[in-house]
Amino acid sequence: MNDEFYMNLAIDEAWKYQFLTYPNPAVGCLILSKNGEILSCEAHQKAGMPHAELNAVISALQRLNPNLKAVFKTAKNANELYALALQNHANLLSGARAYVSLEPCSHHGKTPPCANLLKELGFAKVIIATKDVSEHAKGGEQVLNVAGISTQIGVCKDRADELLEPFWAWSNGNFSFFKIALTQNGVASGGIISNHASRTHTHAIRSLVSLLVIGGNTVRTDRPTLDTRLINGGKNPDVLIYSNETKFDTSIPLFSIKDRKVTISNSLEAAFERHFVMFEGGGNALSNLDKRVKWLLIYRSNEFKDAKNISLNLKIKIMHRAEFDDNELLWCKIIN
Amino acid sequence: MNDEFYMNLAIDEAWKYQFLTYPNPAVGCLILSKNGEILSCEAHQKAGMPHAELNAVISALQRLNPNLKAVFKTAKNANELYALALQNHANLLSGARAYVSLEPCSHHGKTPPCANLLKELGFAKVIIATKDVSEHAKGGEQVLNVAGISTQIGVCKDRADELLEPFWAWSNGNFSFFKIALTQNGVASGGIISNHASRTHTHAIRSLVSLLVIGGNTVRTDRPTLDTRLINGGKNPDVLIYSNETKFDTSIPLFSIKDRKVTISNSLEAAFERHFVMFEGGGNALSNLDKRVKWLLIYRSNEFKDAKNISLNLKIKIMHRAEFDDNELLWCKIIN
C-alpha cells in the first residue's frame, strides 16, 4: 500500500461530510503508526466541531490507550478536546504519519491550529494532498517544517481539489448545485423515488443552504413542502420559485413553513449572490440549467420503474459515490 | 481499523476479477504484518494462475525484500512460484495475518494447497470470510489449526458469499446473468452506449462464457457481431438466438464468426444446461427475463441522452461497483 492508498481513504472519509461542514471545507485525516498500522481515519464533520486532524488524533490515541476514552469524554468542546490531547498523548503518536486532504491550518479559529497539534505530538511526517491557500489558515506546512517535521504535498491533489471545490466557491461568493432523485432507468416522476436515508441526507443539506431554488412547474405539479422535517432542529431554507408567472396557490405546503421567505422571480441573479444554493427540480429544470450551477447530486433508487425517463443531453463526471441503505448518491460534476 | 475493514479490501480486490476466474471462484487475500501494516492485497485473477493467497504472499515478500523480485520473476508457473516462496520467505511473514475471502484450499490442484503455504511461512492468524464447502478443496482451516495457527471464520461472510454465488452456481450446473449498457437516464438504444474500457471488459467475459443468449429482435435491430475482438486471443462464444421465428438474415455479422455455433430456438432450456451463460439485450428482454437469470450487469455511461429509456418494473441490489475510465459497472442481484 502506498501514499495514494492512504490518502484516498482520508479523502473518502471527508466525502461523507461533504456540504455538511459548510461553511468549512470537508477534510479527512488518516494516521499511520510508526510501524505502518492504520490507527484512525476521521473527518471534519460540522462547523464548530473538531477539525479532521484532531478527530483522527483522538481516535488514534484511544485506540492505543483505551483508558483515554473516559478522559476525552469530559471535553465539552473542540478546544477542550485539543487541550486534553496535548496533555494526555504520552508520546503515543511519536514517529507517526498523518495523511491530510488539506494542509493543516496554522491559525487560531474556533479551535487552535492543527499544524501545532501534529507538531506537539511528535509526528514524523505529514502528507498533504493540497495546499490551503486561504489567507487566514495557510502556512501549516511551514509550521511543521520549522519544527523539523517532514512534509509531502500533492498526493491525490486532483481528488482533494475536487473535494474542496464547494468550499473555495462559497468562500468566493457562490456555490450552486442541482439535486435530483432518479430510478435506475432515469425516471424522476410519479411519487417518491428515493429512500428514507437519502431523503434524510437531503434534508440535512437543505438545512445548511442559503437558498433553495425550484421551478414554477415543479411547485405546481408536486406541491412540495421543501422542509427539513426528517432531521432534528433543521433550518428550513428560504425558497426562490423560478417562474415567469407570479401567481401560485398558496395552499401549497412550501408557503406555510415558519421563518421561511419565499420569493417568486423570473431571474436567478439574486440566487447567485447567495453563498450556498441548492436547485431542485426534474428533467426540464436540469435541461435548462444555468451554467453557474456546477454540481449535480443524483440520488439513485434501486428500482427500475415502468415510466418515462427525464430526457436530455448532459455529460457528467462522477466524483464520489455514497450509499444510503439500498440507494446511492452520486456526487457529479457537470461537464456539459 | 478492524477485521471487517481489511476483509472488505480483500473482497473488493477479488471483485476486480469476478467472472474472469471461471471456472474457479473469485478470491481475495490481504496480508497484515506482525505490526499491523498492510503488506499486500491481491486476488486470484484467472484459472491456472496463482491463487489469491500465493499472489498476496509473493507481493508481501517482495515488499519486505525487494531483491526477491528478481527471484520470483524466474517462475514459469504457479507451482514454481509456490516453491520459490517456500524456499525464499526467510521468515519474513512469521507472525503475519492473512485475511482471505474464502477458506484456503487444502488440496493439490493445479497448484499446491494454500493452507500449507500459510502454515509453512509461519502466519500467526488466518481470518476467513466464508468456508469452502467443495469436496475437493475444503479442510484448509483444519490444516491451519492442526499446525497451531489461529483462525477466525465469518468476517464479512455475506459479502464473501455474494462474491462466490457464480462459482457455486456454475459448479452446480448453471449460472446465468444479463448484461445491459445504460446511460445515466436509462437509455439503452441509439448506438454504442458504453466506453472502450467497458466494452473490453464485456469481451473478456464473453470469451469465458459457455453460451451467449440474445433475443431475435435485438439481432434484427442491432445486427450485432457478438465477438471478442477487443481482447487478445479471445474465444467467440456460441450464440443462442431466442426467437419464435427461425429465419434470420445471415449477413448479420454474428453468423460469420469462425468456430461459432449459432442456434435459433424458442426455448431456453438448452441454455440452462450450460455452466456459464450470458444474456444480452435491451429493455424488452430484461422485462421478460427468465427467473433463472440471477444477476444483472449494468455498464453505465457518464452521459444523459435525449431519448426514451427502457421502461419496466424491476428491483435490484447493487453488490459492487467497478470503474472503467468514465463509465462504471454495477454488479447487481435481481430481487424481483
TrEMBL record, chains A, B:
Keyword entries, A-Z: Hydrolase, Oxidoreductase
Gene Ontology terms, MF aspect: 5-amino-6-(5-phosphoribosylamino)uracil reductase activity; diaminohydroxyphosphoribosylaminopyrimidine deaminase activity
InterPro entries, alphabetized: CMP_dCMP_dom, Cytidine_deaminase-like, DHFR-like_dom_sf, Eubact_RibD
Annotated signal peptide: none
UniProt cross-references to Gene3D superfamilies, sorted A to Z: Cytidine Deaminase, domain 2, Dihydrofolate Reductase, subunit A
Domain named CMP/dCMP-type deaminase: residues: 1-152
Key word Lipid biosynthesis present: no
This protein's record includes keyword Hydrolase: yes
Identification of the protein by name: Diaminohydroxyphosphoribosylaminopyrimidine deaminase / 5-amino-6-(5-phosphoribosylamino)uracil reductase
Organism: Campylobacter iguaniorum
Gene that this sequence comes from: ribD
